[in-house]
Design goal:
Blueprint (H helix, E strand, L loop, with lengths): L16 H22 L8 H4 L1 E9 L10 H17 L6 E5 L3 E7 L4 H8 L5 E11 L20 H4 L3 E3 L5 E3 L1 H12 L3 E6 L5 E6 L2 H16 L5 H7 L9 E6 L5 E6 L4 E2 L3 E8 L6 E7 L1 H14 L9 E5 L2 E4 L10 E4 L5 H13 L5 E10 L1 H30 L2 H27 L5 H30 L4 H33 L4 H30 L3 H4 L9 H4 L22
Helix pairs in contact: 1-12, 1-15, 3-4, 6-7, 11-12, 11-13, 12-13, 12-15, 13-14, 13-15, 14-15
Length: 583
């Protein structure tokens, strides 16, 4: 006699449905508890549902860089802007390119959305420039230089007397006459060139630099006319300035008053900064930004501070220039190398913002804000309401169909949909603080589509059970024999749906990814619900008389299904008499 096959369960054998139900119950309790523990009882909403701001930035051409606007630089800018915004804790920020020179930034409404908006277009071009002269930030008119008399003495001693009034920051502020002279003295520097002497020995004699003189005159006029109290004037002063050229710039002193500077060529830039963070100066109690330099940056910084420490004020200062504006101009008393501090009228927020910008690096391009569109919370609420109504209508239609066609079996389908909804809701709520997931309108559409996918799995299983009943089997073996065939169909169908969602998520950007993510998530949950809830519940209900006897409202009535008579073995009729008396 052949040994029984114990390694494989027969097709009609019944499993242990209680274990599966306990497992999915534990998962639901754990997810719900995690939702309360995280303090996130509702999913985070995206811009189109909660409101927010959409900013369009356009890349600008820079002098000397005709081919700077390219795909590589645009992608780099997108990555840096996204890191800046996410570094502030803003959820579901979307940064993507549009065309060949536009970047679209979506910032949801939240605590830090305003700070994020201020940072997205900040180029963060950081330079360390030596200070040549400094004056009050208002425009000044050049005064004529006093002419000398025949005796060589000035005609007007009062006008010829130069004064140095201490500014609000403690830096000497020159009069208009001395401002012009300071610019000229700093920039009209003669260049030493070898020339022959009378003895024939070469000697070095200074030779005037005509181009430097012309540039100094132009810079002097620009400096005297600069009005730092006017934003347009401040922005214009920082445009189209090469790092290797002298420049004029504006900045606020410790008293919050505007000052204007003449600055030398940049000697250290933002790429030489390794890290930057906001901290409190223990000596003054003020917020500052500490910077650590790279190895190459340390050498450059040591060189510039070593030279400036030998100069007299204000030429012993170096200006920290961010996007054309002086954020700090500290004096140098000794040689520095490894780190530096940016001090000024910082609040905690402004210091952290500056540290965030410097840490994530400068944008490779300059951008101009083209448009700002704000979606109010009221409009987002209306869209959310419309999405929920659409979902409710779709769910109601599915339930009506299930009740009309499957009758009692619709109870199992409705319970399965409820379990799937609970799992989907709790997971979406936890993914908000976990990975920054936010529910947008396309994601809601994905959840609505998932209702049909989930219902389709139930229909496949129910129809397999009905096929077994039509073959003449009773309900309990029909439930178990139908499961392997239905399981294969469900897995193949869900795999195709998940593959489509994965491809859609990879090849698309923006809000369409929300649709793909939700569709993929609900497809996975469909498999979980069918295996751990629908099948075990069907096994348990098959033992109930209402379903087992094929009640007309059970949806499994053999007569309505056109079932064949039960399959029975035919008995062989023997010719021998069975009654002993007849033998």
């Amino acid at each position: 006699m052949a040994a029984p096959n114990r390694g494989r369960r027969p097709a009609g054998a019944q499993g242990k449905p209680g274990r599966a139900l306990v497992l999915i119950l534990i998962a639901m309790i754990a997810l719900t508890g995690g939702m309360f523990w995280a303090g996130q009882l509702t999913p985070r909403l995206g811009i189109d549902l909660a409101g927010g701001t959409t900013i369009t930035l356009e890349a600008k051409n820079e002098p000397g860089k005709p081919n700077a606007i390219n795909e590589t630089n645009m992608n780099t800018a997108v990555a840096i802007i996204e890191r800046r915004v996410n570094g502030l804790g803003v959820s579901e920020s979307e940064v993507q390119t549009q065309g060949d020179r536009n970047i679209i930034v979506n910032i949801p409404k939240g605590t830090n959305s305003q700070q994020a908006r201020e940072q997205v277009g900040t180029t963060a071009q950081l330079y360390f420039r030596p200070v040549l002269t400094v004056a009050a930030g208002t425009p000044t008119s050049p005064q004529p230089t006093p002419s000398a008399s025949a005796s060589g003495k000035p005609k007007d001693k009062a006008k010829d007397k130069q004064t140095a009034n201490p500014g609000s920051s403690g830096t000497p502020t020159a009069t208009p006459t001395t401002q012009g002279r300071a610019v000229s003295d700093a920039l009209k520097a003669p260049t030493p060139t070898p020339s022959g002497s009378a003895s024939g020995n070469p000697s070095t004699t200074p030779k005037p630099n005509p181009s430097a003189s012309a540039g100094a005159d132009k810079l002097q006029k620009q400096f005297l006319a600069l009005d730092c109290t006017n934003k347009t004037s401040r922005v214009a002063a920082g445009e189209n300035v090469k790092p290797s050229d002298p420049a004029v710039a504006c900045g606020k002193n410790s008293a919050g008053q505007w000052e204007k500077y003449v600055l030398g060529p940049a000697e250290v830039n933002g790429k030489d900064v390794d890290d930057a963070k906001a901290t409190i100066d223990q000596r003054t109690g003020q917020w500052i930004v500490q910077m650590d330099f790279t190895s190459g940056g340390s050498k450059k910084f040591e060189k510039i501070t070593g030279r400036l420490s030998q100069q007299q004020p204000p030429m012993n200062q170096f200006a920290i220039v961010l996007d054309g504006e002086v954020v700090s101009a500290p004096s140098v008393r000794t040689t520095l190398s490894s780190n530096a501090e940016i001090s000024g009228s910082f609040t905690q927020q402004s210091a952290q913002d500056l540290g965030n910008i410097l840490s994530y690096g400068a944008l490779p391009l300059s951008f101009q804000e083209q448009s700002v569109t704000t979606v109010t919370a009221a409009l987002g609420g209306e869209q959310l309401k419309a999405g929920l109504i659409a979902g409710a209508i779709g769910l109601a239609l599915v339930i009506i169909y299930l009740v009309a066609y499957y009758r009692g079996l619709a109870v199992i389908a409705i319970l399965s949909l409820i379990v799937s909804a609970i799992l989907t809701y709790t997971i979406m709520a936890l993914l908000g603080p976990g990975i920054g997931f936010a529910l947008n309108l396309p994601a809601v559409c994905g959840a609505i589509v998932a209702i049909g996918i989930t219902a389709d799995s139930f229909i496949v299983y129910f129809e397999r059970i009905r096929d077994e009943i039509r073959e003449g089997r009773t309900l309990r073996p029909a439930v178990e024999r139908a499961w392997p065939r239905a399981r294969r169909t469900i897995l193949v169908s869900d795999f195709v749906s998940f593959l489509a969602a994965a491809v859609l998520f990879i090849v698309t950007v923006g809000k369409v990814q929300g649709f793909a993510f939700t569709l993929g998530l609900t497809t996975v949950l469909d498999v979980v619900v069918v295996f751990l809830f629908t099948k075990p519940v069907m096994t348990l209900l098959a033992r109930r008389k209402f379903f087992a006897d094929g009640h007309p409202w059970s949806g499994l009535d053999p007569k309505r299904l056109g079932a064949k008579p039960p399959l029975r073995r035919s008995r062989r009729v023997s010719s021998a008499p069975t009654d002993p008396k007849e033998a």
